[in-house]
Amino acid sequence: MDAKLKELATLIKGRDAKVIFFVGAGISTNCGIPDFRSPKTGLYSNLQKLNLPFPEAVFDINYFKKNPKAFYTLAEEMYPGKYLPSKFHYFIRLCQEKNILKRCYTQNIDALERVAGVHEDFIVEAHGSFAKVHCIKCGTEMDSVTWKKLMKKGIPRCQKCDSYVKPDIVFFGEPLPAKFFELWEKDRKDDFTVAIVAGTSLEVYPFAVLPAEISSRTTRVLMNREICADFEDCPRKSDLVMLADCDHTITKLVDLLGWHDDLEKLIQE
Ligand code: OAD
Question: In the 8-state DSSP scheme, what is residue 89?
Fold first, then answer.
């Protein structure tokens, strides 16, 4: 691992480095937010109280149309604002400050990349966010303050057509935001110095194929507790696989880069 970290640090310190991130729930577990699929601790292992036919139903649009209660039981708990970013989130920000960040594709709906200060031009929230709420039938937008107020009394309904409303989180069975496709069309043709894939099982499509589609001139890095997807099935010779807690990996990496104090400064801000 140390040799791989040194190789990564050399790449990042090189001339005109360009870094792209592909991240998932594992970068937020150290903030106190459970991921989805880790055995025992993941959200999908802990939904017995919701009596779901299958765990992913809580984010399934067809299930939601008939039974929105399951999602709404979790919605308040998941609403952004309660948690602080991890070291990993601040490392993404640090790459922005060093002018080497090119993009951060995230599957997370916790908005912690934004909280850490990453500019929205760099962020692609592939699975949407809580920022806006819409009616699932007529599409009318509901402002978040009204939505939160109604949620306290029960399941919020559209004030125009009385159908259910939901935040613009991408549910299974719904398309990803246009920004995802527009930017990926561009980014997939580009060469980056490194693509850091972190905290994701890469089980959900189309996000899961992004690391496989990244240019062969880009060095892929996996910072995860376990190996997954293309890193296992179709590894590239140049892949740098670092199986550990991603915050521990980042701590060692910033030391090698000589960026320890810069990172601490951002965290203390
Ligand atoms: P998963 O729960 O599927 O995967 C999280 C991965 O992160 C696992 O491989 C963990 O081992 C790893 N992990 C957890 N904590 C870590 C840590 N501290 N350091 C390193 N690795 C760690 O989460 P995602 O891949 O993000 O979709 O899940 C993808 C999508 O599935 C989510 O966006 C969500 C879900 O259904 C929607 O809600 C639409």
Answer: H
Q: 130 a known binding residue? A: no
Yes or no: say if 9 and 193 are a contact pair by the CB < 8 Å rule: no
Cβ–Cβ under 8 Å, residues 198 and 223: yes
38, 166, 180: residue to mutate for ligand 1 pocket, most atoms within 8 A of CB: 38
260 is catalytic: no
User: How many whole angstroms from 125 Cα to the centroid of ligand 1?
Assistant: 15
ipTM of the complex: 0.99
- Looking at the DSSP bridge assignments, the partners of residue 208 are none
Kindly report, residue by residue over 119-130, the tens digit of the pLDDT: 999 999 999 999
For 41, how many CA atoms within 13 A lie in the half-sphere containing its CB?
9
Q: What's the first-to-final CA gap in the chain, in angstroms?
A: 31
Query: Cα–chain-centroid distance for residue 2?
Result: 26
Rg (alpha carbons) of the chain, rounded to whole number: 19
pLDDT, tens only, 108-152: 999 999 999 999 999 999 999 998 999 999 999 999 999 999 999
Q: Which of 114, 89, 108, 107 is nearest to 250 (CA)?
A: 89
Identify the bridge partners of residue 220 per DSSP, sorted by sequence position: 195
Question: Closest ligand 1 atom, CA of 169?
Answer: 39
